[in-house]
């Protein structure tokens, strides 16, 4: 019996490895796609303070909570950090998108030093309607982020309809982002 098991075990391991290899070569599989259990679910419950040291009256001084994401029209929730280079590359695209579309853009500043976050916003401009500081990363866990940047599209009822992992690229605006926004309208 043991001899038979020793003979079959390598064959089973080989078969499993072959199955994973074939699955990885599937041309319809998108390796960048990370599924989210939050799609078509209400935004998670969170309540973030403003970025410490932000000027009163600025969007960085507002904070952000789950209550802010319902009844406000289409809202993009962008998780960003000053230490994130892809966030820097994405920032002008989000700024332009905010300027040209009838959307609300809010930010979750993820595990960032307040002084560095404020300097980053001062340097690049602040397109956000509201920003909450997620110093410990707890809200990021609730949202299920895998890293920064990530952007969630939330409808008027406060339901997450789309998750974009990584920076939004200019090449994605016409073919991906605008059709999603149109569908949400």
TrEMBL record:
Keywords: Cytochrome c-type biogenesis, Disulfide bond, Redox-active center
The keyword Hydrolase is annotated on this UniProt entry: no
Subcellular location: Cell envelope
A Pfam family this chain is assigned to: Redoxin
Domain of life of the native organism: Bacteria
Residue stretches making up the Thioredoxin domain: 37-185
Stated family: Belongs to the thioredoxin family. DsbE subfamily.
Protein name in UniProt: DsbE family thiol:disulfide interchange protein
Source organism: Fodinicurvata halophila
